[in-house]
Amino acid sequence: MRESEFILPDDCVIEEFSMIDKDGKEFKKLYKGKTGFYGDRSVASYTWAIGRHCRDCDKPTEAPYKILCEDCMQKDKAQRYNKLPFQEWDGETALCIFGTDEYFFNEDDIKNYCDENSIESTDLMLVLCGRERIPEFNIDHHLTGFWDFDSESNIPNEDVINEKVNEVIREYLKSDDMPWYPMDIRTTIKV
Ligand SMILES: [Zn+2]
Questions:
Q1: How far does residue 26's CA lie from ligand 1's centre (Å)?
Q2: Is the separation of the CB atoms in 181 and 129 below 8 Å?
Q3: How far apart are CA 115 and CA 11, in angstroms?
Q4: In the list 10, 68, 116, 123, which could disulfide-bond 73, CB 3.0-4.6 Å?
Q5: Residue ranges covered by each domain of the chain
Q6: Strand residue runs (E) in the chain
Q7: CB of 30 closer than 8 Å to CB of 15
């Protein structure tokens, strides 16, 4: 933390106090922050700060914990987005706006969002969504650890059991109950 990074209110003066030992020698300095006294001047500054100088352009940021100003944050986000691999949308996979929890499940969702926010669909930084990968069921693994189950032994109809359970799981994964999560794959759509 460097004190010069922070923007303090105009009337803010950081008061300095000397700690004196019994011989009258200063052994420590304390700096008055908004919420207490600190041994480090830059930490005291941070508590008074109303923003900081943007890392990239030096303009004030909105809050002391924000390293970039709003414009640079958008630029940074766009750069990270544009580095992602691109894939065409299949028309079925859910979509999400990069870095947000704004999801879309069909073209109408996107169209409505664009109308409400006066934005072109091609300007939405969309990413494809995926569904959690669930491992295949295996009766052998499922029973290991119970009673004196021996994984070397042959379970009658093992393959049939596995296939049946996996079939049900696969069907479930296709259902709407499974949540989507955004993937690092960008896409675009014109509505
Ligand atoms: Zn900036």
A1: 41
A2: yes
A3: 45
A4: 68
A5: 1-68, 81-191
A6: 6-7, 16-20, 26-32, 37-38, 51-52, 95-97, 103-104, 126-131, 180-187
A7: no
Query: Residue holding tokens 């041994």?
Result: 39
* pTM for the model: 0.64
Contacts of 69 (CB under 8 A, 6+ apart): 54, 56, 57, 59, 60, 61, 62
186 C-alpha to center of ligand 1: Å? Answer: 25
Closest by Cα among 11, 2, 113, 118 to 64:
2
pLDDT at 151: 65
Give the DSSP letter string of 76-121: HHHHHHHTS-B----SSS-EEETTS--EE-SHHHHHHHHHHHT--G
- Whole-number pLDDT of residue 18: 93
Average of per-residue pLDDT across 56-69: 94
Tell me the CA–centroid distance for residue 132 and ligand 1, in Å: 36
Helix, strand, coil tally for the chain in percent (to 5)? 30, 20, 50
Give me the pLDDT at residue 49, please. 94
Q: So what's the pLDDT on residue 142? A: 84
In tens, the pLDDT along 149-159 reads 676 677 788 88
What is the enclosing helix (H) or strand (E) of 7?
strand 6-7
Q: Which residue has the tokens 């300007």?
A: 123
Nearest to 127 by CA among 154, 99, 148: 99
Residues in the chain: 191
| DSSP reduced 3-state for 3 | helix
CA 41 to ligand 1 centroid distance, Å = 25
